[in-house]
């Protein structure tokens, strides 16, 4: 299939195929954790990876499609649940049927360079629907492939893994592409470690999960935009903080700033509650969860309860930008855009090579226009004077 989408730019796609594990793998049914089984994770999330053609000496003259296809097949031997299919059991509990049916793979070629796309590679990419093929019947949760991979694009079922787990699998593909016989980090399933007690025990009250009667944000006429924050702009924003807050993290700084501007843009009623939720990785020693290295399931908890909700996931240190199959690291690696009320912080270099943070946001069109007005001064100049103009609307905290 050949698609023309702008000034003679062509994308040629071959028929979708299923890549199965290179060797026979166990046929079994695996339980996923209660964290994986959240209703809010029953969706597929698209990621974009844009690479320059900068092969390492060992990859000179080799076909990247052939190399990556074979590497996926080898990696699936170790990550064989990803080649299976989800099914529902009692009380809609999800489980994985490890049947080695495989992951979807699409070979595609383009007659243009990344330089010709310019800043259009950042989300929301205006050419996404032309660059990426949405295979009919693959968008579901049950009985569908858990991964779809197309040269510059990957879509994964969020019930199976989070961003850290996905990067772990991609690094395994990288290992196989470079000729390793096994992944550097061996995968661990052990989903039971993040299950609730049996029977469940309530040890404290979490008011952050209380249901609040409110109107939902309308889902029609939604606008997707990304906002770029340069290091200079972030510094200017920090200069506006009171002295006792100047040592806050960059994540906290941008989160608070965007939360305020977004809440103003939504025009909530004075008595309505606008929540912010930060998605936190519980791996490592900090949270004492005893999650073993190699665990690739979901390790976070979120819930949607109010229309003012703003949910943010920081992907800057997940490792998406370090995935190198032998042709260099990506110049952009991250989500294809915001997912409903969820935004992502991603490392990004603008066209001048200046490092910064890219944040995609999805809002109703009218609210997006108001958000742009709130951010306008900061986004254009990033100066202290412009930031002062933003602080004209008062929002009172209930903390």
From TrEMBL:
GO terms for molecular function: transferase activity. The keyword Cell wall biogenesis/degradation does not apply. Coiled coil: none annotated. InterPro entries: CAT-like_dom_sf, Plant_acyltransferase. Keywords: Transferase. The keyword Transferase applies. Pfam families: Transferase (PF02458). PANTHER family: ACYL TRANSFERASE 4, OS05G0315700 PROTEIN. Belongs to the plant acyltransferase family. This is Uncharacterized protein.
């Amino acid at each position: 299939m050949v698609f023309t989408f702008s000034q003679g730019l062509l994308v040629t796609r071959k028929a979708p195929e299923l890549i199965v594990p290179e060797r026979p793998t166990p046929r079994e049914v695996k339980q996923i954790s209660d964290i994986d089984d959240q209703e809010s994770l029953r969706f597929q999330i698209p990621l974009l990876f844009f690479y320059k053609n900068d092969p390492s000496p060992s990859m000179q003259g080799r076909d990247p499609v052939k190399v990556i296809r074979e590497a996926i097949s080898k990696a699936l031997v170790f990550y064989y649940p990803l080649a299976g299919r989800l099914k529902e059991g009692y009380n809609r509990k999800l489980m994985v049927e490890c049947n080695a049916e495989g992951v979807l793979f699409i070979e595609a070629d383009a007659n243009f360079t990344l330089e010709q796309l310019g800043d259009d590679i950042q989300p929301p990419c205006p050419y996404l629907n032309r660059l990426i093929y949405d295979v009919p019947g693959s968008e579901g949760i049950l009985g569908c492939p858990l991964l779809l991979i197309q040269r510059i694009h990957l879509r994964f079922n969020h019930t199976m893994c989070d961003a850290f787990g996905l990067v772990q699998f991609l690094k395994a593909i990288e290992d196989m592409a470079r000729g390793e016989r096994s992944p550097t980090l061996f995968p661990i399933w052990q989903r039971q470690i993040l299950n609730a007690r049996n029977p469940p025990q309530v040890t404290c009250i979490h008011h952050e999960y209380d249901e609040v009667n409110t109107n939902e944000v309308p889902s029609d006429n939604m606008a997707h935009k990304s906002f770029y924050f340069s290091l200079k702009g972030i510094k200017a924003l920090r200069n506006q903080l009171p002295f006792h807050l100047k040592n806050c993290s960059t994540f906290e700084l941008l989160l608070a700033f965007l939360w305020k501007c977004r809440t103003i843009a939504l025009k909530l009623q004075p008595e309505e509650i606008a929540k912010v939720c930060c998605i936190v990785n519980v791996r490592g020693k900090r949270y004492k969860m005893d999650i073993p290295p190699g665990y690739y399931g979901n390790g976070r908890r979120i819930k949607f309860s109010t229309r003012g909700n703003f949910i943010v996931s920081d992907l800057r240190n997940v490792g998406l930008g370090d995935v190198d199959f032998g042709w260099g690291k990506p110049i952009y690696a991250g989500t294809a855009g915001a997912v409903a009320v969820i935004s992502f912080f991603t490392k990004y270099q603008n066209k001048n090579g200046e490092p910064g943070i890219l944040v995609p946001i999805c809002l109703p069109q009218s609210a997006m226009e108001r958000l742009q007005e709130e951010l306008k001064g900061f986004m254009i100049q990033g100066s202290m004077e412009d930031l002062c103009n933003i602080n004209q609307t008062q929002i009172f905290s209930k903390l």
